[in-house]
């Protein structure tokens, strides 16, 4: 057996164990008994300890030194294995194990604190998570910027300075568009109650319409919607609100975008570094283009309106045009996952600045709520009313995902680039979507992006698919055209 083949066999076993760890996480957020949280933390710590030892094992370094890639895919495999090896070697095993245990327990404490609107109950464990993540970041940065080291876990090759410059370029046009839209009368929303089980039935139908293979996945409920897994086992979750069916349906479409990416990767890459998305920003490009450019389009919402009328009867919306306006209603709100396309990126900019300050030590966890509330009032013009609408709304910080938030906005930028190319490549797109047929769009995305998995670096992945350099311009142009027409600006 060559060094390359030995390394790949070892890597597939490591990836299989990582999938098991991911399944433990899925279970924790869906069906695990609440009283099992402490034990689950111990279980997660144990498996992460094994994974860290495998990823940093000396034999991996030996194989990397000797391995010769047989082709371009093999070169990419070595690139990603080497990157993971170098990062794992920098983080002490005890620290990796402690992080896994604390973040597993913190997730349950966050959920309980959120339900009780009790920020004080969450702050001690948050402080512990932040301290551990700063320690990990310092080890990874090796004298460099700690937050940049965090970013590299989710969007390799980008820096906080580059993200800040991108956000500074986006903010003026977003703020101007929001101000113009909010001066106009808001369209009516849905009214009445919507049975939760019927919502879930429609959610499964919509997920399948967007290409989600339920033979290799499943849809469940969770406090915070997410996607988990890869290859032949890719699971998604959503949530329901009796008065807001869009929360369930568009969370489902969003997570379907993530899941379709994982299900669409070339099976030859299964259980290897290439058998997953190129980055979280690229992943978000799929979830956001499914949810917004496709799922909130006038064409698709016309089909969805008919489906909802058939299941729920009248719900306060007169026709398909009014339904399209309701789906894309720009309105005041606190929750990132429920934000309209115009304001969503402003929510991300807030989180980016706060978590960057936490990692730098410029903001203490105990001061987070006040800092959040002050920044939200400055950015959005009204006060946060309760912690679950403020700094307790997202699960990310409880589980140590510092550096993750900016990838949501990067995903929107990437989606803007992809959508511009998609519309040129699929001229009959609107007619297809109006019939509830997403195949033209999803097949183009699968062929041009999804099937490649992690073969290319993130920016290259997008530029190859879009046929142009990454830029915020297509996204901003799309938003101004869409909402300018909707609100007759």
Automatic annotation (TrEMBL):
Q: What is the name of the protein in this document? A: Metal-dependent carboxypeptidase
Task: Say what the protein does.
Answer: Broad specificity carboxypetidase that releases amino acids sequentially from the C-terminus, including neutral, aromatic, polar and basic residues.
Q: Which GO terms describe its molecular function?
A: metal ion binding; metallocarboxypeptidase activity
**E.C. number, please?**
3.4.17.19
Identify the catalytic residues.
255
Output the GO biological process annotations, alphabetical, semicolon-separated: proteolysis
What's the source species for this entry?
Answer: Pseudooceanicola lipolyticus
The family line of this record is: Belongs to the peptidase M32 family.
Q: Write the record's keywords in alphabetical order, separated by commas.
A: Carboxypeptidase, Hydrolase, Metal-binding, Metalloprotease, Protease, Zinc
How many cofactor units bind, and how?
Binds 1 zinc ion per subunit.
Q: Where is the signal peptide?
A: none
Catalytic reaction annotation: Release of a C-terminal amino acid with broad specificity, except for -Pro
CDD domains, per database record: M32_Taq
**Cofactor list:** Zn(2+)
Top enzyme class: hydrolase
Q: Which InterPro entries match?
A: Peptidase_M32_Taq (IPR001333)
The entry's Zn(2+)-binding residues are 254, 258, 284
> Which SUPFAM superfamilies does the UniProt record give?
Metalloproteases ('zincins'), catalytic domain (SSF55486)
């Amino acid at each position: 057996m060559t060094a390359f083949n030995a390394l790949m066999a070892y890597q597939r076993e490591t990836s299989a164990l990582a999938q098991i760890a991911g399944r433990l996480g899925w279970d924790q957020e869906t069906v695990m008994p609440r009283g099992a949280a402490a034990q689950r933390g111990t279980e997660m710590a144990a498996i992460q300890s094994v994974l860290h030892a495998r990823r940093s094992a000396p034999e991996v370094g030996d194989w990397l030194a000797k391995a010769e890639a047989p082709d371009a895919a093999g070169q990419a495999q070595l690139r990603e294995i080497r990157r993971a090896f170098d990062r794992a070697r920098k983080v002490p095993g005890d620290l990796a194990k402690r992080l896994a245990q604390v973040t597993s327990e913190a997730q349950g404490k966050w959920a309980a604190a959120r339900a009780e609107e009790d920020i004080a109950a969450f702050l001690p464990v948050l402080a512990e998570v932040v301290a551990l993540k700063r320690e990990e970041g310092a080890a990874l940065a090796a004298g460099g910027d700690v937050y940049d080291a965090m970013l590299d876990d989710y969007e390799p090759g980008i820096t906080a300075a580059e993200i800040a410059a991108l956000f500074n370029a986006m903010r003026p046009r977003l703020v101007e568009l929001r101000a113009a839209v909010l001066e106009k009368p808001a369209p009516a929303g849905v009214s009445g109650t919507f049975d939760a089980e019927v919502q879930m039935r429609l959610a499964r139908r919509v997920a399948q319409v967007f290409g989600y293979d339920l033979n290799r996945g499943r849809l469940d409920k969770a406090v915070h919607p997410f996607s988990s897994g890869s290859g032949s086992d890719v699971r998604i979750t959503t949530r329901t609100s009796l008065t807001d069916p869009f929360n369930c349906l568009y969370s489902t479409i969003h997570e379907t975008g993530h899941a379709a990416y994982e299900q669409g990767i070339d099976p030859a890459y299964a259980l290897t570094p290439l058998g997953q998305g190129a980055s979280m920003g690229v992943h978000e490009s799929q979830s956001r283009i499914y949810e917004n450019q496709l799922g909130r389009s006038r064409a698709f919402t016309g089909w969805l309106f008919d489906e909802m009328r058939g299941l729920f009867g009248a719900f306060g919306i007169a026709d398909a045009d009014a339904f399209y306006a309701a789906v894309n209603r720009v309105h005041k709100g606190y929750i990132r996952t429920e934000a309209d396309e115009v304001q969503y990126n402003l929510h991300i900019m807030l989180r980016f600045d706060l978590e960057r300050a936490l990692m730098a030590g410029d903001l203490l966890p105990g001061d987070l709520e006040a800092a959040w509330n002050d920044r939200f009032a400055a950015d959005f013009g009204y006060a946060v009313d309760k912690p679950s609408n403020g700094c307790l709304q997202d699960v990310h910080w409880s589980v140590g995902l510092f550096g993750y938030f900016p990838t949501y906005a990067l995903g929107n930028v990437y989606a803007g680039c992809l959508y511009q190319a998609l519309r040129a490549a699929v001229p009959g797109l609107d007619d297809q979507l109006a019939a509830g047929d997403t195949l033209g769009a999803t097949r183009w995305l699968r062929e041009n992006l999804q099937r490649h998995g992690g073969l290319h670096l993130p920016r290259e992945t997008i530029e190859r698919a879009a046929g142009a350099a990454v830029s915020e311009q297509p996204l901003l142009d799309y938003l101004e055209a869409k909402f300018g027409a909707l609100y007759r600006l």
